[in-house]
Automatic annotation (TrEMBL):
PANTHER family: CLEAVAGE AND POLYADENYLATION SPECIFICITY FACTOR FAMILY MEMBER, INTEGRATOR COMPLEX SUBUNIT 11. GO terms for molecular function: RNA endonuclease activity. This is Beta-lactamase domain protein. Coiled coil: none annotated. It comes from Thermofilum pendens (strain DSM 2475 / Hrk 5). Residues 3-153 form the Metallo-beta-lactamase domain.
Length: 317
């Protein structure tokens, strides 16, 4: 197994590549894309493999390849199974963003799960991920350090609503900044459902909102925001990197804010969820594929007694 700009898993005659962010050095039998965040795929890499089957959900393709230029896409959805180039692939929702999936494959008698980014917590949007039983789990380590344990969702929701209400009482608009795909949709739903206000939403966020709605996620009402200072008090939802007028108060909504400076609202699993996933999966081997890889591997060995590896290359027997 190779963890390098994606994850390469070899077994028998099959080479399975998960989430490549550059063209794989080894020729893959099949490529699998877990979801539509840009740190999990490269269109250039995918286009460089015109004869290789590329497995993903319809919602993922709608976001990353709306013009349908990729060739050889094989669709799979939550609860479905496909066989591609002799590899059986089972898909399960990962609860991260619209269309995000975890995948179970079996190579040389080993049940291997690639979680992609996942979330086990109940939220206003999407259903939580289910833990998939496996021998080997290749797991998201974005927040794989013990310092990243998030408050309960209800507490975060309450704090955000109180923060926005206080600004509205002052007659002030407030920018809520979250990741364009994921947190921004949760913020859209929270503002409408909890406050009965129609939030203003930046177009880059609204375009993703429409994909969520197409695939059955109701976010409530929202209105377009064109970037000028709003005339009325209330929430304005933008993506994290959006530039804004310095006169507008703003709030960052990201897991990195657990250390302060915003609200740690994330579509990722925190450290406690990651540990719970590995424990409940029954896996004997865990391999973090991103984030705090070394620290998480050591924590999993200490807390669960499993084999855990953070090396670039891993051989599993």
């Amino acid at each position: 197994m190779l963890v390098d700009h994606g994850v390469v898993v070899q077994g028998g005659r099959a080479t399975v590549v998960f989430d490549p962010t550059r063209t794989p050095a080894l020729k893959p039998s099949v490529v699998i894309v877990s979801h539509a965040h840009s740190d999990h795929y490269s269109l250039r890499a995918l286009r460089s493999l015109p004869n290789t089957p590329i497995v993903m959900s319809r919602a993922t393709r709608e976001i990353i390849d709306p013009s349908l230029r990729l060739r050889n896409v094989v669709y799979i959805e939550d609860g479905e199974e496909v066989e591609v180039e002799g590899v059986r692939i089972d898909a399960f929702s990962s609860g991260h963003i619209v269309g995000s999936l975890q995948f179970l494959i079996e190579l040389e008698g080993k049940r291997i799960v690639f979680t992609g980014d996942f979330n086990l917590e109940k939220r206003l949007v999407l259903k939580p991920a289910s833990v998939v039983r496996a021998d080997v789990v290749i797991i998201d380590g974005t927040y794989g350090s013990p310092e990243y344990v998030f408050p309960p969702r209800t507490e975060l929701y309450r704090g955000l609503v109180e923060f926005v209400k206080s600004r509205m009482e002052e007659g002030t608009p407030v920018l809520l900044k979250g990741r364009r795909v994921g947190v921004a949709q949760e913020l859209t739903a929270l503002m409408y459902m909890s406050m009965d206000v129609v939030p203003l939403v930046e177009e880059s966020v609204a375009s993703v909102n429409r994909v969520y709605e197409k695939y059955g996620e109701w976010l409530g009402k929202y209105a377009p925001w064109v970037g000028s200072i709003p005339e009325r008090a209330g929430p304005v939802i933008t993506h994290l990197a959006s530039r804004h007028d310095a006169r507008l108060p703003h709030c960052l909504c990201t897991g990195w804010a657990v250390k302060g400076g915003g609200f740690p609202l994330s579509s990722h699993a925190d450290f406690s969820q990651i540990v719970r996933y590995v424990r409940d999966s029954g896996a004997e081997v865990a391999i973090p594929f991103c984030g705090y890889r070394s620290e998480l591997a050591e924590s999993l060995k200490r807390l669960l007694g499993v084999e855990a590896y953070a090396e670039r290359e891993v051989t599993i027997t």
